[in-house]
TrEMBL record:
Domain C2, first and last residues per copy: 1-107
Annotated InterPro entries: C2_dom (IPR000008), C2_domain_sf (IPR035892), Ingression_C2_domain (IPR052981)
Superkingdom of origin organism: Eukaryota
SMART domains linked: C2
Entry protein name: C2 domain-containing protein
Signal peptide: none
Pfam family, one: C2
Length: 148
């Protein structure tokens, strides 16, 4: 398969995550799955309900891929002593991002049809061919960018 570009996904932060712990805050990480490739952020120790990562993940984009490979699954996990427990999952269709070159918005997380919080993603697609379009300003105000 021929690589046509790179999708850069910045997992910025999450909000309104349920925290089953009452005496301390949960340790949270995020996971992104695209086209069979899985990547995860570092664990935000005591991130609680509003963890912040601001971590960049890169995914190669190939020319001839199935439609289901254009769906990106994002999830948040709480690190427990005996493994990890899924907090919630969401999906993003990256087809639009591959056309426009950019995406930045909150992605709704659910588990068994129940709302489990939101994850903020910034995605930029860099084609292997011509120079990318000018980057537009993010929708999130700078004052809210890295605060819990």
């Amino acid at each position: 398969m021929q690589e046509i570009g790179t999708l850069v996904v910045v997992v910025l932060k999450a909000r309104n995550l349920p925290d089953k712990h009452s005496l301390y805050k949960q340790d949270v990480f995020s996971q992104v799955v695209l086209g069979g490739s899985t990547k995860a952020t570092k664990i935000d120790i005591k991130g609680g309900q509003h963890p912040v990562w601001d971590e960049e993940l890169r995914f190669p984009i190939y020319q001839k891929t199935k439609q289901e490979d254009r769906l990106m699954e994002v999830s948040c996990w709480r690190k427990e002593p005996r493994g990890a427990e899924c907090i919630g999952k969401g999906t993003v269709d990256v087809e639009e991002t591959l056309r426009t070159g950019e995406f930045d918005d909150w992605v709704k997380l659910e588990e068994s049809g129940t709302y489990r919080g939101d994850l903020y993603l910034e995605m930029t697609y860099y084609a292997a061919g011509p120079v990318p379009l000018q980057r537009r300003k993010t929708k999130m105000p700078a004052s809210d960018r890295l605060v819990r």
